[in-house]
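Just curious: can you write whichever protein you like plus the matching structure tokens?

***
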Amino acid sequence: MNKKDLKVAVIDLNNGAPNQGMRGIQEILLRFGKENHINLSFDLFDLRQKGEIPGLEYDAYISSGGPGSPLESEGDIWENDFFHLLDQIEDFNAKSKQEKKYAFLICHSFQLACRKYQLGNVTERRSNAFGIFPITLTEEGEQDEIFKGITNPFFSVDSRDWQVIEPDFDAFERKGAKLLAIEKERKHVDLERCMMSIRFSNEIIGTQFHPEADPVGMKMYLLQEEKKEAIIGMHGEQKYLDMLNSLDDPARIVLTQSIILPNFLKQAIGRLQEV
């Protein structure tokens, strides 16, 4: 293999729903290839709508967010295919001393993996969380290479009706998983905080938030009347205006988008170059 080649499979879990996430992922991949002078190629797999699933011929896998309940798909063919792929990646990594395959799971994909590995309670929120929110790194998150160069807390786009709470740390230990980030820390309030990022294994990581989100896509969302009304209803008009104004702030989602997925790709290409 050419040390400057990277083959990526992008798994689309949007089930045909309009979204900005797939565009965001593809733009990051194109930019990363160009900036790092790497021959990066990627293929798209529409898993929920068309049953498309990649094989093991890729170096890295990025699986998207998507609409609906992460519980209702239990037993569905597409979900079984998704879980089988995760098992295949882990089996490959266990057997291969040098070459590894990497996976990044976003939002809906993250929730499914949490259910698969029984790391916490996947539950419906009382109301939709949508906007740009601060996220707190744990001590392990601060040490993890995926967050190298980010602030703590950092800001990202969060869009969810479901969440994973109540981490089962015995299950974490059995799996060798690490909790890397949580919802905004409230030191004096005994409220269950949502898990925002988990390293499932050395090569598989996931986030509840959307590291692919960019100001262009977010602006399109925020200017939709229903989103605008929902945010104003939940947080007030000032918070809505603050969100709009913060889109181009280089220390907020621009920073997050420029660091997390590129760090993941650097990890994958770095291991290939070692091989």
About this structure: The first strand starts at residue 5 and ends at 12. Residues 253-274 form the longest helix (22 residues).
